[in-house]
Every structure is written in C-alpha cells, then in structure tokens.
Design goal:
With about 50 residues, the chain is mainly α. The chain is built from one helix and no strands. The chain has a domain at about 20-50.
C-alpha cells in the first residue's frame, strides 16, 4: 500500500541517487549562503540609502 511506511532510503541508498549536489548537507549549505547573500544585499542597500 502506498504511504504505509514504505519508500526508499534517503541518500546514497536511494535507487535514484546520482550525485550529492541535492543531498541534505548541500541543501543546508546553499540555504546558508543564500541567507548571507541576502543580508549583504540588505546591508548594502541600507548603507547606500536605497
């Protein structure tokens, strides 16, 4: 039955796994870098008075 605790294992054990660029670690790193970039742009706009 669908959804009854079934499904493949996450990560490299998943049958459709091809590379690690969409793994949890990379996703969290990408989110952190995006947040830093947003903060930098906000700071720049505040300094420039826009």
């Amino acid at each position: 039955m669908h959804g009854a605790r079934g499904g493949a294992k996450p990560g490299k054990d998943h049958p459709a796994y091809k590379h690690g660029l969409r793994g949890t670690e990379w996703t969290n790193l990408r989110k952190a870098l995006n947040a830093i970039t947003r903060d930098a742009l906000t700071s720049t706009r505040l300094i420039d008075g826009q």
